[in-house]
Amino acid sequence: MLPELRVLYFEDLAVGMSETLSKTISSSDVVGFAEITGDRNPIHLSEHFAARTPFGTRIAHGLYTAGLISAVLGTRLPGPGAVYISQSLNFRAPVRIGDTVDVTVEVAELVPERRRARLKCICSVGGETVLDGEALVKVPTKAEADPLAARAPKG
User: Fold this and answer.
1) How many other CB atoms sit within 10 Å of the CB of residue 23?
2) What GO biological process term is on the record, naming one (predicted)?
């Protein structure tokens, strides 16, 4: 199921605002990510291979988990029109098939002169952080997103 879209413009943002998305990781998600990216590492695809690793079972690609951050940025906070500038990632623990990942994005800083938002990003499973980092995104103003509406007479 795709997240509901919510459009926020730069002037709508405030430090401390946050959004969370939850996603239960399925085997088909991991197989699909492997197909799209070409990363067919057997730790993600072969239960037999993964059983011999320290994880004991298949794990999701780290960048699949990170991709869930992109889902929040592109659909909820800030939402459509936001453009990624950078993302730092710290992988803290594995995500296994069947885990529910809670992705929380919080506005940490706003840079008005450049219309940038620095966002704290945390992915957790059962309250344990599995990935964290920061994103920097460019967020359009309402006038940039809809120039005709910005020039329309008020009232």
Assistant:
1) 20
2) fatty acid biosynthetic process
